[in-house]
Design a protein that fits this description.
There is one protein chain. The chain has 261 residues and is mainly beta. It has a single domain, classed as Clam (outer membrane lipoprotein receptor (LolB), chain A). It contains 3 helices and 14 strands. A 14-stranded antiparallel beta sheet has the order 8-7-6-5-4-3-2-1-14-13-12-11-10-9.
Amino acid sequence: MNKAIARAASLILITLAVCSFAAAQQLPTAESFVGEKLLFEGKVSKIIQGIAIADVKFSFDRVGDKYLIRADANSKGTLARLFRFSFLQNYETTVDPATFNVIATKKHDVQRERIRDSIADFNYAEKRVTFIESDPNEPTRPPRRIASDLLAPMNDLSSAAYRIRMMPLKVGDKFNIQVSDSGLIYSIPVAVVRRERQKTEIGKLWCFRIVPEIFGPNRLIEGKGSMTIWLADNPLRTPVRAVVKFKYGKFDIRIQDPNDD
């Protein structure tokens, strides 16, 4: 009898393990993200501990036969009051549903009185990405142009995060993801370093701790620093936190509960 009970218990444990593995490998598709809206708050710590400086919003929609990812970062009033600095960044990323390759990136970037509008056009037939940036305050000034050779698959900063969410992830994984920013191409090494729990506004969640190498020579950001991202180990691989450490301090971005007013 004891052997039968032990065997039954073992079968239950094995079944649970198999189900847990299957659940962990049940990956989201791009269509899973349609209608998703995410809200984050960014805090910086160096001069003043934990001061909230920005709200960051993401949305993922289908517009016609394309996907449209919107990312908006707005400085909070505290930043303007204490440091007399404000910023606004609006990104619109158009993605091909068949390949999830980025087709176009539009950017509106405001820093104090400085304004820049830009568009990056991705032509896979000609294997070329063309970036054009203009200054609305100086309409007669020739726009800045950058062009680079293009290979697929290709992402911009926003679509790269969604592509990683659709990938099978396990601790120890290392891979490169191709990102185009401002007309230049970067191959970013990414490592899945740990699975750990994070206390968030939407609950205490098991997460994959992911480290993309974006700092350093010939990287996305020149200079010293580090970036860590936590993706929830749930069906949507929800991003819940990102921490960027650089010479100006630590920038901590955490998901907010959209239903918490």
